[in-house]
């Protein structure tokens, strides 16, 4: 049970927000008042506002599961399968055994990644859905108490009592807007961007398969040390590409991102190849 305190009656009009610290939250379309609007209706936009509108100002959706699953899938496929393939190759087995191990690793890893992504994303979706249902029920049973709670949150963000009460009143105008406001402020989520498990699972399956195929393909055409060398080069080049692509998304140095990806892949492959060489296997024909 959350503690409640007496709130002033919601003001009939927007209060003066001069000097107020406005919460980092957009009240959504169709809501005018203390946050929206810049002077009188129909007033000419200020020069800085025009410059801001002309400037490129957008953000990527970094909460979706499919993109994250694709990036991790390709990287995991590369590292996992090159490590498995070179470990078996280091044991001095024939190319057919390396192909079998690599193909088995590709299938096992792809379906394992897809299943894991589906289960984890489904559980997350169900958890968030339950929290939203709890909040929806609270809004239906005690709308005034929820309005007061939202006003208290805005006060902690720096608004005055009157401004916080007005903004909370505006956010409670419709059930959809009220649920979105409480979900953002209390739970920290946007109900409109909850990721689905199906695209994430499919993305993991396809991307892991793609990554795992890179070190495996040379073994269908080559054997021995040549196949090992070609697999290593192919994985290094693929890691370079992944690192550069990641740097474009994160804004970090392409060189640093690419080197990190290459070092991780080569280190894992080198360890398993060394273990295979040291241990070896006895194959009975």
Quick summary:
This protein has 285 residues and is mostly helical. Among the domains are: 71-113 and 202-279, no CATH class; 123-193, no CATH class. It contains nine helices and no strands.
Defining key terms:
67% helix, elongated
Tell me, rounded to a whole number, the average pLDDT.
78
Strand % is under 5%
With helices defined by DSSP (H or I, 4 residues minimum), what is the helix count?
9
Sheet bearing the most strands, described? Answer: none
N-to-C order of helices and strands: HHHHHHHHH
What structural class do you assign from the helix and strand content? Answer: mainly alpha
Low-confidence stretches: 24-43, 51-59
Give the % helix. Answer: 55-70%
Distance between the termini: 71 Å
Number of strands: 0
Query: How would the global form be characterised?
Result: elongated
**Could you tell me the radius of gyration in angstroms?**
28 Å
Question: What are the SSEs and their pairings?
Answer:
Elements: H1 47-54, H2 65-90, H3 95-141, H4 143-156, H5 161-171, H6 175-187, H7 197-216, H8 224-250, H9 254-279
Helix pairs in contact: 2-3, 2-7, 2-8, 2-9, 3-4, 3-6, 3-7, 4-5, 7-8, 8-9
């Amino acid at each position: 049970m959350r503690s409640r305190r007496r709130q002033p009656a919601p003001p009939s009009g927007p209060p003066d927000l001069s000097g107020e610290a406005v919460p980092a939250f957009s009240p959504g379309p169709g809501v005018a008042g203390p946050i929206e609007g810049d002077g009188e209706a129909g007033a000419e936009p200020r020069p800085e506002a025009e410059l801001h509108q002309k400037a490129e100002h957008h953000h990527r959706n970094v909460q979706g599961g499919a993109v994250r699953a694709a990036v991790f899938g390709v990287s995991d496929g590369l590292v996992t399968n090159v490590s498995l393939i070179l470990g078996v190759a280091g044991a001095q087995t024939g190319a057919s055994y390396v192909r079998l191990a690599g193909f088995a690793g590709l299938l096992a890893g792809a379906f394992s990644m897809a299943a894991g992504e589906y289960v984890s994303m489904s559980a997350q979706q169900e958890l968030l859905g339950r929290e939203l249902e709890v909040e929806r029920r609270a809004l239906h049973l005690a709308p005034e108490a929820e309005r007061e709670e939202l006003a208290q949150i805005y006060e902690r963000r720096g608004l005055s009592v009157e401004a916080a009460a007005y903004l909370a009143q505006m956010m409670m105008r419709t059930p959809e807007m009220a649920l979105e406001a409480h979900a953002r402020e209390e739970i920290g989520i946007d109900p409109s961007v909850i990721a689905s498990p199906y695209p994430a699972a499919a993305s993991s399956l396809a991307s892991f398969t793609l990554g795992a195929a890179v070190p495996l393909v040379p073994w269908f055409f080559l054997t021995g040390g040549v196949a090992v060398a070609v697999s290593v080069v192919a994985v290094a080049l693929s890691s370079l590409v992944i690192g550069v692509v990641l740097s474009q998304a994160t804004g970090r140095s392409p060189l640093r991102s690419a080197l990190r990806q290459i070092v991780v892949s080569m280190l894992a492959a080198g360890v398993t190849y060394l273990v295979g060489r040291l241990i070896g296997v006895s194959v009975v024909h």
